Amino acid sequence: MRTLCSSTLIGEFFVIGFAGLVAMKDPDLSVATVWTVSGVAMFLCLVLCGLVTRPGGVALGWALQIALIASGFVVPIMYFLGAIFAALWWASVHYGRKVDEAKARFAAQANPSTPDAA
Predict the structure, then answer these.
(1) CA distance 80 to 30
(2) How far is CA 118 from CA 76, 99, 112, in A?
């Protein structure tokens, strides 16, 4: 799960950066505000890459997906991109867990002497 979710988060890192560039064109927003918000979101993407397998990591990822969709109020294309990344996040979590379960089954079959194999 970690690999799939981290790949999605790294993609979001770049999309958030590019959305920040687009948001800078809005005369109502200061450059400092845009880069503070974008920078925090980009940093959160990187931190979540390491926290995804920890308790609450997936929930924080979902919060980031909601924030990404909500950023469509500032950069309208982010409604679409946020929805795409939310779908990718769901797929990463869903199929990543299935892959992890399959790996655990195969490892238990390969080494039946471990107590987890029972």
Answers:
(1) 24
(2) 53, 20, 8
User: Of 11, 21, 8, 13, which is closest to residue 75 (Cα–Cα)?
Assistant: 21
Q: What is the pLDDT of residues 4-36, one digit of tens each?
A: 999 999 999 999 999 999 999 999 999 999 999
The two tokens of residue 112 are 């039946």
pLDDT at position 115 is 63
Q: Give start and end residues of each alpha helix (H) in the chain.
A: 2-23, 31-51, 57-70, 77-110
Instruction: Give the integer Cα–Cα distance in Å for 104 and 117.
Output: 9
Q: Which two tokens stand for residue 22?
A: 């687009």
Count of CB atoms situated within 10 Å of the CB of 72: 16
